[in-house]
Specification:
Elements: H1 8-20, E1 25-29, H2 53-65, E2 70-74, H3 84-93, E3 97-101, H4 109-116, E4 120-126, H5 132-139, H6 144-157, E5 162-167, H7 176-185, E6 189-193, H8 213-226, H9 237-240, E7 252-255, E8 260-262, E9 272-273, H10 279-285, H11 287-293, H12 301-304, H13 316-323, H14 331-348, H15 354-358
Parallel strand pairs: 1-2, 1-7, 2-3, 3-4, 4-5, 5-6
Antiparallel strand pairs: 7-8, 8-9
Helix pairs in contact: 4-6, 8-14
Length: 389
């Protein structure tokens, strides 16, 4: 079980939300501005217009009346918004449970105290290496590791739960156990990202950073060891009985800085914009969302016959960006599944049946969705008003 696994009560609550059709969680990006320039950042344009403080306060009211319980605040760097702590405090008054993603380099003792007083359940922070030269090269910002570590110390001193995530690169695979032990000793949860997502425009410029071949297998194996993942063979899609590929657009909604609503941050399919219609109206009536809801695991006919599907983390959003259709799995998904299968064998000592291997296509480097234009709602993109710093 991973540190981020749902406890039984949360799992039951989320399942009840899915049955009811209500949104359980909303991911709210306040700004795409950031003082770092991380190599793997999926923001293709950091100059998006932003909703005003008043607009976001109204949005919080709408999310509350729509049933949202869990708020996830991010960016860009969320602390670049001068009104963030005000908005977070209002969210606490409305009864939301909040998670915050930040690089923590702007976190002071005062900021950490304010976060602790606003019902923040967890802070997510990315650390790419404990070596300053490596981390700072990845963020393209000198001194960024030192500032991030100082921020994490403030967060832990304030009693906040912190989860550190490492986006693994070929030259940092062997550092995974060191980073894991370092932050676990500080009382932090740790997660490892072994895949780099495409940017919002669906371009392939970030694929050069993605792990492939033996590097991916080694990283997946270390992830299994360090996170003590279940040693049992996961149930295949046919055996699992699960109806939904994921919660995107079902129990989760993403809202961009300019008010655009998507199924999730990795799924840039426009559902509507809260500057034009209420969130509840978009959630209930969006034709694109209805199309997504109509597609269940039962329709994944080729996946049903895959005996290795339990190792697959099918992402409709990534499929949408690569192929232009969230229902069409790119071959890269198969390559990633086979890497996880190989890592499972390495760590568990168990050999999967040859028939299981034969049912999973070999996979290739993901192909670029050339000339695909996603219908993302981008009014006055790059020319809108920003909240003053």
């Amino acid at each position: 079980m991973t540190p981020d696994a749902l406890d039984p009560v949360q799992a039951a609550l989320r399942a009840a939300y899915e049955r009811s059709g209500l949104p359980f969680a909303a991911h709210l990006d306040l700004t795409y501005r950031c003082d770092l320039d991380c190599q793997h950042c999926y923001l293709d344009d950091k100059a998006w217009p932003e909703m005003t403080t008043a607009e976001i306060l109204r949005l919080l009211e709408q999310l509350s009346t729509s049933g949202v319980l869990d708020l996830r605040w991010s960016g860009g760097e969320v602390l670049r918004r001068p009104d963030f702590l005000q908005l977070l405090a209002r969210a606490a008054e409305l009864g939301f449970l909040s998670r915050v993603k930040t690089h923590a380099g702007l976190v002071t003792a005062e900021v950490a105290s304010a976060l602790q007083n606003s019902r923040v359940q967890r802070i997510d922070v990315s650390v790419y290496s404990l070596q300053p030269a490596v981390h700072d090269a990845f963020t393209r910002s000198s001194g960024s590791l030192q500032r991030t570590l100082a921020g994490i110390a403030h967060l832990r001193d304030a009693g906040l739960a912190v989860r550190v995530s490492m986006s693994v690169q070929p030259h940092t695979i062997e550092e995974m156990p060191l980073l894991f032990e370092h932050f676990r000793a500080l009382g932090c949860a740790v997660e490892f990202a072994t895949h780099v997502f495409r940017d919002h425009a669906g371009g392939d410029r970030l694929e050069v950073l993605d792990l492939v071949g033996e590097d991916r297998i080694r990283a997946e194996a270390w992830r299994r060891r360090l996170l003590s993942l279940d040693a049992a063979v996961p149930a295949s899609l046919r055996e699992s009985g699960s109806s939904a590929p994921c919660g995107a657009g079902r129990t989760l909604a993403y809202i961009s800085p300019d008010g655009s609503v998507w199924p999730c941050v990795s799924f840039p399919m426009a559902l509507g914009n809260v500057r034009e219609r209420s969130f509840a109206d978009i959630w209930r009536t969006s034709a694109a969302r209805q199309e997504l809801l109509a597609w269940t695991n039962a329709e994944r006919t080729t996946c049903q016959t895959c005996a290795g599907s339990g190792f697959c983390s099918y992402c409709p959003g990534e499929a949408f960006k690569v192929t232009g259709d969230f229902r069409s799995a790119p071959s890269g998904f198969h390559a990633a599944t086979r890497a996880r299968m190989a890592a499972f064998e390495e760590v568990s000592g168990e050999r999967l049946p040859q028939a299981t291997w034969a049912s999973v296509p070999a996979g290739e480097t993901p192909r670029t969705a050339s000339k695909t234009v996603f219908p993302i709602h981008r009014p006055e993109k790059g020319r809108g008003r920003r909240v003053t710093e």
